[in-house]
Amino acid sequence: TAALFAQSPVAMLATVGPDGAPHVVPVVFAVNNDREQPVVYTAVDAKRKSTKRLQRLTNIEGNPRVSMLVDHYDEDWTQLWWVRADGVAEIHYRGEEMATGYAMLRRKYVQYQRIALDGPVVTVPVARWSAWHA
Pairing with 119, which of 36, 51, 58, 109 sits 20 to 30 Å away (CA)? Predict the structure, then answer.
């Protein structure tokens, strides 16, 4: 379950807005399994965005409970699966967690050799895994 999640290239990050509405965005991520509790890292990078004040960060500040979902679709429906990680997110603007997140993301994604990681890192210690497969 955790291995399928970690190998996926993209996850959907679900947060809750101040008005209680769900907010879901695709994110790249890396998983640190070297801890007692796995931690998912994602970061704000230098790709063009409409604003630096991202809704996901505002939402996490107001309600840090999040879910991250990865899935696999195939024309052969016997190959379908999904894995969800639930936890309480934290935003890091400096320090060890930020450095660890940047390093892990650079290892997983070659694109970060060309695109700068210049924003905060979000960590999600996984409190619960949920999964389904055909």
Answer: 36
Distance of alpha carbon 24 from alpha carbon 132, whole angstroms: 20
What is the greatest pairwise CA distance in the chain? 45
Mean pLDDT for the stretch of residues 27-36:
93
- In angstroms, the CA 74 to CA 69 distance is 17
Stated length of the chain: 134
CB 38: neighbour CB atoms within 10 A? 19
Contacting residues for 28 by C-beta, under 8 A, at least 6 apart:
9, 10, 11, 42, 105, 108, 109
Tell me the C-alpha distance between 129 and 3, whole Å: 11
DSSP 45-97: ESS--S-SS-HHHHHHHH--EEEEEEEE--SSGGG-EEEEEEEE-EEESSSHH
Give every CB contact of residue 74 below 8 A, 6+ residues apart in sequence: 80
Counting DSSP H helices and E strands in the chain, the numbers are 3, 8
pTM of the model: 0.93
